[in-house]
Each structure stands twice: as structure tokens, then as C-alpha cells.
């Protein structure tokens, strides 16, 4: 069988090509992809050739936010049937290293993650029409869920894991800095878990409008109204929990100023070295918490979407056919008009 794939060769060099896909082997299913979301890491590969020490060293098929339909099954597959619609978990922990043995699968020493250039050879991703997927990586989605919505399971799983790192959010005052896809979904998870107040900040009105639909009780454009956050810094701070989703130094400083003593800042956004005002971190006894990917939260995210407990449709701001991949990446990089851009197969 032939399939079209979206392959990155170098910065700004994406090509739609044809390759052969084999029949599913034991424990595998053939998935016809329906939708794939363009993530921030995909944009870094496209614009910069990588991020931090991770560089593209060979042609790579991008994409790890994917969902599709099972078209063939291999021997031994008993949990899926032809025609099932599935969200594909891109995370492949080894299951036997010391971290997997402790149940910390997201820290697997041999992790294979779809569409990642971390290892060499690279782990090829899901921006293709047909793909062989291991049975355990497929989570069935409800009949009323579109494949575009199902493809949002991966970023939502990131946010569910971040919320688990934050602890109980019921009745808490929450700040989310950065209203991209992750920020908007963090707001949605905070609302779902009973936060009493959810303030979201960003530099763009378009993204803030989406955050409001996802659960923000107030949005603040810190570019046009930079003083609007000052009131939250009074009396040593206001918020109980901050999800810092921008990885911008200014946002982290704002978070430290606006959080109350003994509050929690969950650092979701990723960047290089960022200066931190340690005197405030120590003086206010702030917990600065990292969060990395997910494991069991992927299935939980699928359930939240298929049960409509969380409506992800507002974050999907554009969908392009595979042949228009260049236009899709251009749109995804324009935060003045885009939150989540998807490819349709």
C-alpha cells in the first residue's frame, strides 16, 4: 500500500512524498489518519531545525497529535476492530528501565516519542495518510467525537498531567500565563477541576478570546495593558496556583509576583536558561514545580474529550489538507490568528 507523508528535510523544507506502508504485523494495526495537530515542537523543527540540543539530523516525518481509523489488524490484536476510531498515544516507554519500574514512564531512559529528533535514527511521526501503530498506543474514541477533536488528546494529556502536579484545584484561584493551545487547555482542566477563578494572560487578543471560551473567568492582554496584573501582586500575591505556559522570563516574574506565599507555580512552557528571582521564591516559600509529558493521563484525556467534559473545539482555529502543509505551518506560527492548526488526511 502507498501512503503520502509529510517529511521535513531542513528548516522550511517540508515535502509531501509517497512511500510504501507494510501490512500490520503481530500486535499492530493499520491506522488511516484523519487529523494531526501542529505542535510547538513541530514548529521549532520547521523554523529552527530543532530546539535546544535536539537537532534534526536526518529527514523526519513530523507529527504526534494524531487520530484516525483502524483499517487492518495484525495477529493477536483483540481490543480493536476494523473501523474503530482511535486517538494515537505518541509515547513509547520501554517498560523496563529504572524509571518505568517505578511507574514514572514519562521519564523512561529509552523513550521513543513519535515525530521526535531526540534519538538517532529519529522516531518518525504521524503526519501521513496510513501508519502502523502498536495496539496499546490506540485508545478508542466515542462515536460523537470528530477525529480533529480526538487529535487534541495529546496536548490535553500534557495539561492533565500538569494539573496532577499542581494538586487539588477545587476552589483555587488560578493564573495561566500564555494562551496558546497548552494554556487554553490548562484553563479548561482548571475549570473542570473546580477552580473558582481562572485568569489567563497573553500578548494576543485572538488567543485570549479562545481562552475565554475554554474557561477563563478573566483574560488580560499584558501587551496592551501591562499594569493590569499589578493589583494581583498586592499583599504578597493573590493566586494559589500558576500554570506558566509561555516560557517567557517576563511571564515567570509576573507569576512569582502574583502568587501568594506558599503557592505553587507549575512550569509547563519549555525554554533555555531563564533567570529566576530566587529571593522572592525563597521569601514567599513558593513551590516551583516541573511537569513533563504524561502517561496514564492520555486515556483520561481521551475520556474527557469523548464524554464532552472538556470541549476542545474552540482551540482548533484552522484545518488544512495535507497538500497545503506549508500554508498550515505558516498559519500555525502566526499567533495573531491561530491557536491549534491541524492537518486533515
Structure explained in plain terms:
- The protein is an alpha/beta fold.
- The chain folds into 2 domains: 2-152 and 312-344, Medium-chain alcohol dehydrogenases, catalytic domain (Quinone Oxidoreductase, Chain A, domain 1), CATH 3.90.180.10; 156-290, NAD(P)-binding Rossmann-like Domain (Rossmann fold).
- The protein is 25% helix and 30% strand.
- The protein has helices spanning 40-48, 98-101, 147-150, 153-166, 181-192, 205-213, 249-258, 278-283, 297-306, 325-332; strands at residues 2-10, 13-20, 28-37, 50-51, 54-55, 60-61, 65-73, 85-88, 91-92, 112-113, 130-134, 138-140, 173-177, 197-202, 218-221, 239-244, 259-267, 287-290, 316-321, 340-344.
- The strands form 5 sheets. Strands 3, 7, 8, 11, 12, 19 and 20 form a 7-stranded mixed sheet that branches. It has a 6-stranded parallel sheet with strand order 15-14-13-16-17-18, with helices on both faces. It has a 3-stranded antiparallel sheet with strand order 2-1-6, with no helix packed on it.
- The protein is globular and about 65 Å long.
- It starts with a strand and ends with a strand.
Short précis:
With about 350 residues, this protein is an alpha/beta fold.
List the topology elements.
Elements: E1 2-10, E2 13-20, E3 28-37, H1 40-48, E4 50-51, E5 54-55, E6 60-61, E7 65-73, E8 85-88, E9 91-92, H2 98-101, E10 112-113, E11 130-134, E12 138-140, H3 147-150, H4 153-166, E13 173-177, H5 181-192, E14 197-202, H6 205-213, E15 218-221, E16 239-244, H7 249-258, E17 259-267, H8 278-283, E18 287-290, H9 297-306, E19 316-321, H10 325-332, E20 340-344
Parallel strand pairs: 13-14, 13-16, 14-15, 16-17, 17-18, 19-20
Antiparallel strand pairs: 1-2, 1-6, 3-7, 3-11, 3-20, 4-5, 7-8, 8-12, 9-10
